[in-house]
Amino acid sequence: MVNTEFLDRLKEFIENEARSGSMDFGCITPLYVYRMLGGQYSMEDITAGLAELRKQGVFGL
């Protein structure tokens, strides 16, 4: 199960990236998130978080 605090952070990050016009929702990869968040979260957590957001239908991912 993915931490809900992390999912909220990930949703906020994706929303901010899309709002700034630098990235479309579907183009955000785990590696991109990892680099932009400075390695704060593991690739496994990011991958699982993105998969969970897709499963929930967030942002049409």
In short:
By secondary structure, this protein is mainly α.
Walkthrough of the structure:
The chain is mainly α and 61 residues long. Helices cover 62% and strands 0% of the residues. The chain contains 3 helices and no strands. It has helices at residues 4-20, 30-36, 43-56. α1 (4-20) crosses α3 and α2 (30-36) crosses α3. The longest helix is centred in the first third of the chain and has 17 residues, at 4-20. The protein is globular. It starts with a helix and ends in a 5-residue tail after the last helix.
- Terminal CA distance reads 19 Å
Number of helices: 3
Beta strands, count = 0
The helix-and-strand class reads: mainly alpha
Mean pLDDT across residues: 86
Strand content of the residues, in percent?
under 5%
From the spread of the alpha carbons, the general shape counts as globular
Overall helicity: 55-70%
Question: What would the keywords be for this entry?
Answer:
61 residues, mainly alpha, 3 helices, globular
SSE diagram, text form:
Layout: H1 4-20, H2 30-36, H3 43-56
Helix pairs in contact: 1-3, 2-3
